[in-house]
Amino acid sequence: MPRTPPVIASQQPGNYLTGALWNASVKAMGDWCLGSGTNGAPRFRGYATVAQALSNDTWTPLTLDSEFFDSDNGHSTTTNTSRFVVPVAGTWDVTGSVGFAANGTANRAVRITVNGAAVTGSFVKTSSATAAGSCGLVTVCQVVCAVNDYIEVQGNQNSGGALNTNAGSDVCSSLGCFWFSG
Question: Which InterPro entries match (predicted)?
């Protein structure tokens, strides 16, 4: 169920700050900013523990089968595993990464999408990786979303054939989404 950020109440001069007003306003905002679980600002971070084959020169949503945290259950590890579904409207800080297996041919890229459309300025590309080592790319952007929009991280490579992502290490695909304003 979607949530909304608390609103700090304003009062006329001379009115008393009651315990009820304090709890409904000041404490509620503190809990939202500093709390945990569904008492805090919405946040998610997921990652891949299983390698994913990316077809040549095709933008592909990256599957995220594990979570570090998901305060509002905006992500599923069994259905549409590439998607984080926005539980609270507002501006979100989004970090996406992709880790590629070792392959010394061509380019690698990563980008963020909202509802399947690329976010302007989120594209990051690197020249070919090495045949001996894996390659990781990270992109960061801020997006304004409505409730039920979905955010994904996508990977692309043009090695001439399918190329696996890395999984379950510090060079793996991941997505982090953190709400920071309404």
Answer: Tumour_necrosis_fac-like_dom (IPR008983)
> How much is the average pLDDT of 2-14?
78
Q: 47: exposed, middle or buried (C-beta count within 10 Å: 0-12, 13-18, 19+)?
A: buried
Cα dihedral 144/3/61/49 (nearest 10): 130
Q: Count other Cβ atoms within 10 Å, centred on residue 6.
A: 16
Which residue, among 155, 152, 47, has the nearest Cα to 92 in the 3D structure? 152
User: Which residue did the predictor score with more confidence, 124 or 34?
Assistant: 124
pTM for this structure? 0.89
Every domain of the chain and the residues it spans: 1-40, 41-181
Question: Measured over all CA atoms, what is the biggest interatomic distance in the chain, rounded to whole angstroms?
Answer: 73
